[in-house]
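glucose-6-phosphate 1-epimerase
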Amino acid sequence: MCGATVVSWRVNNQEQLFVSKLASFDGKKAIRGGIPFVFPQFGPWSFGAQHGFARITRWNLERPPERLHNGDVEAIFSLMDNEFTRSMWNYQFRITYRLILREKELHFHIGVYNPSKELTMTFNLLLHTYLKVPDVRRCQITGLHGCTFMDKTRNDAMYQEGREVVTVNEWTDRIYQHTPQEHIITNVVSGRKMRIHKYNFPDTVIWNPWIDKAREIGDFGDDEFPNMLCVEAGHVSSPVILLPGTAFEASQILQIIIEGNVSRKTKRNR
């Protein structure tokens, strides 16, 4: 599977992920939309493709989709260093990527292992989640108030978020640092809310190219920006430092909140 990019997630037969109508599926470039896997570099990279090689490299299917006894569907993918990856990034590594589909949830469990006996490796890791939305201007994102962020639209200047909820009404490209484990996004598909719960991902990237930047992206329709919002869990403002023989783990859960549907945590607190 090229790039291990999740390109569709349906809840009640409604698509939750945005994929551009101009996206390429030829395996030569990253898919514009869905949930690409960013590793080992976030952003421009002098050694290879932007956002690293994981989203354009063929992954192994370790375990094909299988229904478990509890009704969940699970699939496991893996990626190891090879001649192609070592031509850009000369490290040994093994990534295990476990996906679990539930009725209203999609789980992502990631493990990165450094098998070297001598070399410490550093890397970025991010799930570049493109959400499908009716109108991005009506979306609100919680969990960012008080967080410091790097604004890539203003020469990487640093600011502190003063808003209780973040809205997007212009070209937005921000790396929020030390964000909490949970964000709620309002007005996704059918006006519902989505919960993003993350573990070991200290950063949250918010991105929308808006009008002018959308026109500069060849595989993105000029008129598509109002219908997408990227809310990306990652470890990008500082790298993961992985010592020889050790592993790094991170996870993300996307959950559609349907009226009357409360989380297990909320139930326990009552």
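thats it. The helical segments are 83-86, 210-216, 264-269. The chain has a mean pLDDT of 93. bye
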